[in-house]
Amino acid sequence: MDALDPLLIKATQAGLPLTPTPYATLAEQIGCTEAEVMARLTAMLDAGIIRRIGVVPNHYRLGYTANGMTVWDVADDRVDELGNAVGQLPFVSHCYRRPRALPDWPYNLFAMVHGHTRAEALAQADIIANLLGQACRARDILYSTRILKKTGLRLVD
Amino acid sequence: MRCPLRGTPFRRRDPDSRLNTVLQEIDRRIINQLQSGFPLCERPYESAAKALNLDESDLINRIGLLLENGTLTRFGPLYNADRMGGANVLAAMTVPLERFDAVAEQVNAHPEIAHNYARDHALNMWFVAAAPTPEAVEHTFCRIEAETGLTVHRFPKEREFFVELKLTA
Questions:
Q1: Which ipTM value was assigned to this complex?
Q2: With bands split at pLDDT 50, 70 and 90, how would you rate the model's confidence at B26?
Q3: Which residues from chain A sit within 8 angstroms of residue B153, using beta carbons?
Q4: I need a surface site. Which of A77, A150, B143, B152 has the fewest CB within 10 A?
């Protein structure tokens, strides 16, 4: 990270300014030039520190009320290759390999899916199941029933 | 400048029809286009607006309105928590139903807990702890176990697979 980056991250925690020249507005706030702001944002995009610049819609407001965490017990020697393929599916928002917690939890692949109905989410899970084929030994889908806490990303000081 | 959407009679009458009214075709196009990226140039709104056949000021106003009414949860750079020097770990517990709300309070009281969701499974409480170091995350889980007497199952990311989700608005 560059010395400017923490300042830039702090200045954009609430989002990008809604001014015609938002990068100049940020530059003014943190005391550098507009060109420096654009250069650092580009560098952080390239480094993967910024995933993308854009909008994040509220799933529920767009009608995606069936948000399911699909979980899969996938053969260890296939999980990375298949995880990549699952991540490419258009309805998957997050896809991770995680450790199992045996005996309670045999699943090592997690993929979040989003449907307008549970039937749609289940159909998406079936597409994943087809893709995994014989490498998958067990599956489940967990719907969130209540948000108990949700805070934004906190900065690490 | 007054946003043209703000004068609709539905807005005051019924929150649901207001939502349907507010999410007009142009808003759907804005959401669909700006999920994949936003220009890095001196006048990015002007540049993005052109592709949407909008004026710069219209686009700025509509993004503001969509944020205000909760259709968008965020607009701007999306930071990758894993690349910012901190640690964050997903965990889950099986919480007896009669203690569920009390345990949720105990868990949520820790500032390290960023998200916490109830899910319909034997493991019925799922949360993420974020802290400057992996040790601090582990310490939070140990304290939650001590306070609740319940086992915290840790599910750290072993690998993240690339995704390119766009929710069609």
A1: 0.81
A2: very high
A3: 101, 104-105
A4: A77
